[in-house]
Amino acid sequence: MPPALRRRALLAAGAALPLATRVQAQPRLPQGPVTIIVPYTPGTGPDILARLVAPVLQQRLGQPVTVDNRAGASGNIGSQAVARAAPDGRTLMMQVNTFVMNPSLFRQVPYDPVADFTPIAGLTAGDLVLTVNPDVPAPDVRGFVELARARRGEVAYASPGIGTPQHLAMELFRLTAGIELNHVPYRGSAPAVQDLIGRRVAAMVLPVHTALPLARDGRLRMLAVGSERRVETAPEVPTMAEAGLPEVRVDLWYAMFGPAALAEEFVQLVNAALLAWLAEPATRAQLLSQGMAPAPGTPGQLGALVRQDLARWADVVRRAGISAE
Q: What are the residue boundaries of the structural domains of the chain, listed by start?
């Protein structure tokens, strides 16, 4: 076929195809300001992260991006607001893994972590560490387990409250080790930490960046981290797996979601912008200073993590008999 006829045939075939096939799909950007809802108070990990990513998304989306803290009911109020929002890209949500713990802790939760949200991007992880006060005669995890067995139900541990990630992490440790401990819940981390370093409770699970300066001052000891690898800022502290408890994998993961039925092209655009930001060396340094490490994830990986942790923590809550109500 002569070149001219071949070109005409190709043009005719192209004209017969749907427009979406002939033109690469372009993501529909939000038509107005974008709000990142944080279901927790200012100064918390999700809030810090939301305020770091807001200017990144503002530049990419071409719309003002603001952060709205809607705290209350362990994050349920803000999460419900996002679940009910229109899937137009104007409402996003920054979450921590409390999100997948709540459905097992409360009789009624006003959202379904799987059905009511679109996973957008896994962002960061905050490492957790098992700590003890200096008077506890246990140099390592094995020693702490032996102490708890010798003093059945007498060794007390603190948490920021019933159903918090730190509480569930300690219950997973207790169940896995087969020991009895006395849980002392507090209203927030500050009073719990004060009683830990004041020797009024023996142990507590803490974020590594909170525990590290206290450990360096000799006010507590770090026994093991719950992550799969040793922590960059505290490489001398072994993992739970190295201590003989590989099932105790616990951390705080942070991620971005939107309402259900967000357009796939929009999700991919936001995911690409956030993961490019996470890959920048300056971002890594900024996050490490806040006690977080980049943990980039695709929408599919985040969705799988939600389903996995939803089942895992439901099992822990059931076995430990925990209720936040």
A: 34-125+252-320, 127-225
pLDDT (tens digit per residue) in 232-265: 889 999 999 999 999 999 999 999 999 999 999 9
For residue 305, give both structure tokens.
Answer: 């993590």
> How many other CB atoms are there within 10 angstroms of residue 109's CB atom?
18
User: Residue 226: CB partners within 8 Å, gap ≥ 6?
Assistant: 127, 128, 129, 130, 169, 205, 239, 240, 248, 249, 250, 251
The owner of tokens 């002392």 is: 184
> How does strand 251-259 pair with strand 91-96?
antiparallel
Q: For residue 239, what is the DSSP state? A: B
Q: What global pTM score does this model have?
A: 0.86
Within 13 Å of residue 279, how many CA atoms lie on the same side as its CB?
Answer: 7
The more confident residue out of 265 and 20 is 265
Q: CA torsion angle for 171, 176, 180, 182 (degrees, to 10)?
A: -20
Q: Residue 253, SS3?
A: strand
Q: 124 Cβ partners below 8 Å, 6+ apart?
A: 49, 253, 254, 278, 287, 292, 293, 294, 295
User: Is 34-125+252-320 a domain of CATH 3.40.190.150?
Assistant: yes
- Report the alpha-carbon distance of residue 254 to residue 41 in Å, rounded: 15
Which CATH architecture does the domain made up of 127-225 adopt? Answer: 3-Layer(aba) Sandwich (3.40)
Pairing of strands 156-159, 203-207: parallel
- DSSP per-residue codes, 107-126: S--SS-TTTTEEEEEEEEEE
